[in-house]
Structure formats: C-alpha cells, structure tokens
Design a protein that fits this description.
With 453 residues, this protein is α/β, with parallel strands linked by helices. It has 18 helices and 14 strands.
C-alpha cells in the first residue's frame, strides 16, 4: 500500500516511516496540505494519509472530497493532547494515533486498509477452478473481463491477478464507473488541465496515467456512457490518453481489467455497450460463481468473518452451531459474499452465549416459497391474494412501498450504501438519488457506515 505523511509528526516521522516500510508500505512525505494535494493531482497516489494533528485536518478532508480523492485520513499527535484528538476526529479523521508511534498500532491500521484485497477463503471446486484460471492468465498482459453477480468478489479476484502479474511491483488503480457521476468520470479517467472547465483549479492527472506501468480496474464498466466508451476504446488501441483541455496525447503502459454484474453480450445487443470495446476488453473472461452455487464455502467464509469482526469489536470468537450453519446454507444470498460478511458482522454483535445459534442470525428474507396460484375473479366474487402477506400493500402507492424497501435494506446493511445497492439490484448512483429525494421529503435516512461510501 501507499502511505502519504503530511507534516513532521512532532519529530517522529522517521520512526513512523520505518514502521510502515517494515510492514511493506511505500512511504512518501510532504511538508503541508498544499504539497499533499499537488502530489495527488500529479498522479502520485496514496491509499492512506497520515497527518500531524496540528495541521488543518478539516481543510484537508474538504479538499479531498472536493477533488474526489477518496482516501482515509489518520491523525497523529502527542499522547496527552486529548482535545486535539477529539477535534481531529470531528474534522473527518478516521483514527487518531498517539506519538511516539506504537509499532503494533500502526501495523493494525495498515492491515485494516489492505486486509483481504488479495486473498480468498474458499473450499469449493467452483472457486478452485476460478483461482486456477486466474493463476494461469495473471502473468500475461491480456485484458480480462470479470463477470458475476454483485458481491461475488470481482474486485478481489482482480487484485489477486494483479498481485500474481509481472506488474505487481507497480500500482493498481480501481475506478468504480457506477459511483462517479457521468460528467466527472471523463476527468477522473483521463485527467484535465488547469482551467479546462469550471472547478478545474489545477492540473489533475487521470487514473490511466496514475496506473502507468501497472494495472487499472474499471469496476462496473457496463455503467459507462457510450461517449466515454469511444474514448476508452481509443486508449486501449493507441495506449495513450488525452487530458481534457490538453493539446497532446500522453502515452501510458497499462493492463486493463474490467468487471460487470450484467450479461455483457446482452448489453451489446441492446446497444448500451460498444461491441468493438467489448471484444477489446474480453480477451479472457472470468465468471465468478454466485454464493448459492458454492455452498461449501459458506462455512469457512462465515468462520473467517466471525473471527475478523470478533477481533475488531473486542468480542471472544464464538462457534457456529449446526442449526445456525443450516440456516445460512439454506438461504439464497442475493448479495452473495458481501451480504454474508455483513450478516456475520451483525451476528457477532447480537449473539449471546458461547455458541452462535439461529436466533442471532437475521436474514433479508428466507428462500422464496412457491406461491399458490391466484384464483381469477368469478361472477360476483373478488379474487383473493395467494397468501396473507400482501394485505399490507393493498392501497399503498408503488413509491411508498419502494421507499420502505430501500430504507429497510439500508438499515439491514448498517447504513452501507454499496451493500444496499447490490442487494436491491440498483446502481449506487440510483440509490443515492433516491435517498436524497426521501431526505428532502423529511424521511429519516440511516447514516453511512464509517469508511464505506
């Protein structure tokens, strides 16, 4: 991972840097916030920022948000400065690390950022075949299309491929094409020059240039606008990008991976995705199996998440009872592994005793049951619902039912917008628009889960 340190850290910068480097991080240091922003704009990216608490953290967080640098910020300061620590957290810092730096504490922070980006927990033959294919194709420079339902681990397999590739010593950049507004995605990918448009306060290196020498992952590429697809095709063909407002192309050396939760051939037939771009990206296809197709993985995955979140919450790890495991394996998992992780996080907070029993596991509906056919209305008779569970819907508008479903799902996901959108089968952009609409109408909106959106 890449760590950017801002400030002198009360003279402890050397110790903090050495600890981070010993744990495999690449460390860069700048004197102040403006230098940090210039570093990021110039394409020298970071995965984590560590800033001295005496700096203007609120200013940094505001600038990062304004220029769409989605980076966690960690504040550092002397141990007895409690007021500064509280102010830092209120200003947007995710954590506060006291100085002099504690090796295990810094290691834990780095681990939390990089955890599980390049490894798998599985026992099924279906996942074994996917891993074997990934191992075989990783050393090449071929473009790869990774498909599968939301929550199956498409980004994880992409990171695994990068780690196994000859580019593993260089950067991997991920761009979520569904999460960035269409009018900003072009600048995000290809960069812009100062003054190229309103708000372009400085030159910004795009993600393709930032990934030079490494790998770029275009997540949910099927959400990309057709106009941008044309520009992307040129980048793949010519291996060069044109910054917005620039006067000459810039050569890039990158490997492109792409993911989608849709059937790309259907998207091509519908005319929403360019066929020539599809063939350019689809040199090799990896299809991620749904969790319901790899039931053997539910037990090891559940145990892994129980251990992870028990440790994170300071709770003794409990074992799953056979009845609890049966409940998990009998569920249809529309949100796949991501939903299972969220479920086990909730479960370890709600479970009591030494063993996790079924009553501690709350699922978003159980496997669908076959409904009885509805009897057509006869002479003088009103057709009745097949079951009593639709009675509460009669007389309500579609909009009100939709709002209840979205907000219930968001509560179920502990406020995590990304997880909720995946379960609902809508884009994160659509979900955010809906939530803004509901909030404007006075509905209470669950707060976002820290560090997820």
């Amino acid at each position: 991972m890449r760590l950017l340190i801002i400030g002198e850290l009360y003279g402890q910068i050397g110790a903090a840097s050495n600890i981070a480097r010993s744990r495999g991080a690449k460390v860069a240091h700048v004197a102040d916030i403006e230098a940090a922003m210039n570093t990021l704009r110039d394409g020298h990216g970071a995965d984590l920022i560590m800033i001295e608490v005496r700096e203007d953290i609120e200013k940094l967080v505001t600038l990062l948000m304004r220029e769409r640098f989605n980076l966690p910020v960690i504040a550092c300061g002397i141990k007895n400065d409690k007021d500064a620590a509280v102010k830092a957290i209120k200003s947007g810092a995710k954590e506060y690390i006291p100085l002099p730096p504690d090796e295990e504490l810094i290691a834990a922070v780095l681990e939390a950022i990089t955890e599980e980006t390049q490894s798998f927990v599985y026992a099924s033959a279906a996942m074994g075949k996917v891993i074997a294919m990934a191992d075989q194709i990783a050393p090449s420079d071929a473009s790869i299309m990774i498909t599968g339902e939301s929550g199956t681990g498409k980004e994880v397999i992409a990171r695994y491929i990068h780690k196994k590739s000859k580019r593993s010593g260089n950067t991997m950049i991920c761009v979520n094409c569904a999460a960035i507004p269409e009018n900003l995605l072009e600048s995000e990918l290809f960069g812009h020059e100062k003054g190229a448009f309103t708000g372009a306060v400085a030159r910004r290196i795009g993600k393709f240039e930032e990934a030079d020498g490494g790998t770029i992952l275009l997540d949910e590429i099927s959400e990309m606008d057709m106009r941008l697809q044309s520009k992307l095709l040129r980048v793949l063909q010519e291996r060069e990008v044109d910054r917005i407002g620039g006067n000459k192309p810039v050569k890039v050396n990158i490997r492109v991976l792409a993911t989608s939760n849709r059937n790309m051939q259907d998207e091509v037939k519908k005319g929403t995705f360019r066929e020539d771009l599809y063939f350019r990206l689809n040199v090799i296809t990896l299809q991620m199996p749904a969790l319901r197709e790899r039931l053997e993985d539910i037990k090891p995955l559940s145990e892994h998440f129980i251990e992870k979140y028990s440790k994170a919450n300071g709770i003794p790890a409990r074992k799953l009872s056979e009845a609890a495991l049966a409940k998990l394996t009998g569920y249809h998992w529309p949100g796949n592994v991501r939903e299972l992780e969220n479920t086990m996080h909730r479960t370890i907070l709600l479970a009591t005793g030494n063993v996790i029993e079924p009553d501690a596991i709350f699922l978003q509906g159980m496997p669908e049951q076959q409904a009885a056919p509805v009897t057509p209305a006869g002479a003088g008779n009103m057709a009745k619902p097949a079951s009593g569970n639709t009675g509460g819907l009669v007389g309500r508008t579609v909009d009100s039912v939709e709002q209840e479903l979205i907000l219930d799902t968001l509560n179920y996901c502990l406020g995590n917008r990304t997880h909720a959108a995946n379960i609902l089968g809508i884009s994160i952009r659509t979900l955010r628009n809906k939530l803004k609409q509901y909030g404007d109408n006075g509905a209470p909106i669950p707060p976002a889960l820290t560090g997820t959106d």
